[in-house]
Amino acid sequence: MATKAYAALLRGINVSGHKKVPMAELRTLLTELGHGDARTYLQSGNAVFTSALGDEKALAAQLEQAIEEHFGFGVDVLVRDHAYLKAVADTCPFPAASLEGRQLHVTYFSEPVTASRFASLDAARYLPEEFRLGDRALYLYAPDGLGRSKLAEALAKPAHTKGVIATSRNWNTVVKLVELTRAQPA
């Protein structure tokens, strides 16, 4: 059976000493689960690997269970294949090439989200910050970075994220995950 390259996006690990997941142990877990060429990027929960399984939700559930059993706490995981990651990067509605990586972010969602989810948000109030929706993704332009973004804070409220897993990455990481999954052997 053919293998496919994936990225696992772990939500909320290694933040302020909470939910510590050493990347070497994450790579080992992926290998023990039978996946190939397991690698990690940064300490913030980005792993790439190959698998013949072919089902993103099943892969995410498998990794969530392994993390719970190994580390003793739950972590939400999204798994996306190279084609999806590349499409998200290619369809960015903001001029990514002319922005710094810290100014542009993508929030990946477990399910499709519609504009109605954000209807109560007065987007004009947050200008020059802006957001746009994509395929199970939200693009955020925050010229002063995520740490100072009032729009990011508003978008993260439970009213906007209820019922979905959401995890964000800066543009540098978005591009790097496309590159790392492309570099995986077929």
TrEMBL record:
It holds the Pfam family DUF1697. PANTHER family: BLL4334 PROTEIN (PTHR36439), DUF1697 DOMAIN-CONTAINING PROTEIN (PTHR36439:SF1). This is DUF1697 domain-containing protein. It comes from Streptosporangium amethystogenes subsp. fukuiense.
